[in-house]
Records
---
Amino acid sequence: MMKQEWHSSLHIAYSREVKQTAIKGETITMTTPTKPGLMGIFAHPDDESFGMAGTMKRATDAGHPVAIVCATRGEEGQIADPALATPANLGQVREQELRRACAAVGVTDVSFLDYIDGHLAEANEDEVIRKIVAHLRRMRPAVVATFDPKGAYGHVDHIAIHNLTLGAVWAAADGDRYPELGAPHRVTKVYYTAIPRERLMEMVTQARSQGQDFVPGGDEATIPVEEMGIPMAEITTILHLTDAEFDAKQNAIRAHATQMPADSPFANGSPEDLRRMMGTETLFLAPPPVSAQPFPAPEDDIFAGL
């Protein structure tokens, strides 16, 4: 590989050594490139854990930099147990839940965009995109993951962050956009967290067989169950979690205690049911021009081809 020089103005966050030296204004000559990084960009605390906690654990264990950017603090979410939070402090509580969940899978790079839960679609589009671009140019990830175009189950914030993330991916690569934020950066692979439609239907059927009226997304769902998620036949990327990765995912989900009501399948499912529901993570690799180039599919590694 050719040597690459990184300057302080780029604020590269690939490694502690590079980041600290850049802050001192020195020039670093890189002879060994850092492994490609992953950035998850989501709307609320807990989106990352249900969607890809195991994937993040696998990445951090292998030495890949991983970061989470969260648009809101989930201030309008439910409170499963009044002892855990109040409506007045729920945002602060959920911020800490997200940080603990990320720590459970080895992620410490956690940032918030500071928008209000339920109102992301009303935010100034250019302002949000600019904030995301700042993070993309700071970390320079090869891989970005966000929600699918339908927001999994039609959640308006999920749909908004999907659209805003794609806008930011394009803008980050354009040297004429936000030049004050550093050198342009082109994300190579863009993924959508993809809940298999068949799995959602299985969860609904199982809940109903136990006398529970379970709807994925609850009151935030805006589309029929039959339209939620992505059909298994369209999914490009399947990761079967190891026991260690699955345990870490479980710990990450449990960290979001305010969002785990007692009647949730994730709270009261048997170990076998939970393994079947969450022991495999699935994603959809967006084709060009969203991703920078085509990649072979199916695949079992989000860093394949990089």
---
Amino acid sequence: MDVYSEKKFIFKIIPCPLCGQDKFRVLGEKEGGFFSRSDSTAVPARIVSCLSCSLIYVNPMPFPGRLDSSDIYNEEYTEMLSKSIPFDQLSERDIDVFEGRLRLERMESIIGHRGRLLDIGCGPGNLLVQSIRSGWDATGLEVNRESAHFAREVNKVPVVTGMLEDFEHSWKESFDAVYFNQVLEHTQEPLKFLKTVRRILKPRGVVFCGVPNESCFMNHVGHYYFKFRLSPFTPFLSPTFSPYHMIGFSTKSIRQAFEMTGFEVIEIRNINYTSIGEVFGGKKEFLKRIRIFLGLLARMAGHGYGLDVYGVPK
């Protein structure tokens, strides 16, 4: 395994994190910013697609160097917390509130009851507030110390701080539902993470996993735009700068990951939680109409911006 170090990362050439094959095609380079070509705080990285299973990932893969994973998220994500507001000040139309309610209802419908729920990467605790108020016995796990503090002190929900592997043995078969939204794409070893989730879930439990859809419409548009411009830049992933996305899933690859780790996939939903106005910096009404129209088309075609996955143990 080839290894080299740069700044706070150690880069390792790895086989595909999903299927284990080592042949890939290069999609482009990522140095910083979803739609900018450089960022002084980022480290250049190469984005590839596995020729066997089509998983998108970083190769060489950046692993924490001078800092461990928890330190990186505490260093980079604390600024995001300044935008957090108490749950009771959120609107019912807020995307987190709206989608959170639907996800909780869907998990309950799958197993037929409420029970003990773990929210991995719970952030400020919005989903925890909703779940507790609807009758779940819920606990959060959060790596960012400031977010965990906000959840406990402001939203008044139970949250422990740390990494999932810290609790793997003490939580064995402890939860009726495990919820992890926008978490799996941050892991260098997604199969290991899912196997750990499988071990802490009760035999008749349910999991919810939300991930970005790297095969979404806007990513494809961006990819071919930069190829047309003969630019090495790619819109896929963000490995060495916030939000640190290492793995890019499609409907096919997320299903494969679940099935390889002992889960049966019950449902995969395409969702949209971005806007063209955010992408191009405009907020005019006609951009909103375009966003709605393209979002509907993309979602119907299976290319929405996000994937909501529900699974149960096999």
